[in-house]
Amino acid sequence: MTKRVCYIHVGPHKTGTTSIQWFLQKNAAELLKRGYFVPASETKHGAHYALVEKLVGLEVGQDREPLVARSIREIAETPAKVIVISCEALEGLLRNPHHAETFFGAIREFNLQPKLVLFPRNQPQWINSSYPQTVQAFRGSDSFHSCALGFAQSPGARFSPWIDLAKAHSAELIARPFSKETIALGVVPEFLQSIGLDSSPFRDTEIRRNESVGPFTVSVAREVLLRHTRTTKAAHVPSGETM
Fold first, then answer.
1. H-type helices in the chain, by residue range?
2. How does pLDDT run across 132-147, given as a tens digit for each residue?
3. Domains in the chain with CATH codes
């Protein structure tokens, strides 16, 4: 039996993932007409968090279990020759050898040939994009210098492990640079080309989500978070002690 193909978009973060996922969700019916099945998502922008958590062997909870069970059933039963899954959380999940073995084992049980789609990004550009988003979301108040050093030393900053992962699980690795040209032309057309589709018949391929904020917004958000942190620490200091 000829294996069907499963394109697995793994991100990473800040490389147009939300735009790609939003497009896939909005165009699922049109993609199916062309033989590409996109499972339903529990998120507004279309990321398959619950599905990939289940496929790596994690518990997804009773509230998400029905959707996941339906998606798994539909993947097994759909006549489509191509399945498309998108979730940047796989960047971290697949670093765990057990999770990776479980995930690719599940893909093999569906008789699917895995193809990993990755958008590597220039590190300085990546840091410049990630830092404002982190501060704006009140997830960190460290200086840009501190965040840049931490990012450079993090496992997510290295792309070479993806080569080893693909080889270990007989998966094709499709890497497309997330460059200034990609940003200018739009990541969705680039993604569609990487999975063998022409973008011209589709609408909304130029959509951009999660645009970066400016320096003023970043400075205000950082100051708010710093003040909140200082207030919280002061509230927990026992009576009679000083900070």
1. 17-26, 28-33, 49-55, 65-77, 90-93, 97-109, 123-136, 144-153, 160-168, 180-185, 187-194, 215-235
2. 555 444 454 555 555 5
3. 4-120+159-206 (3.40.50), 125-157+212-237 (no CATH)
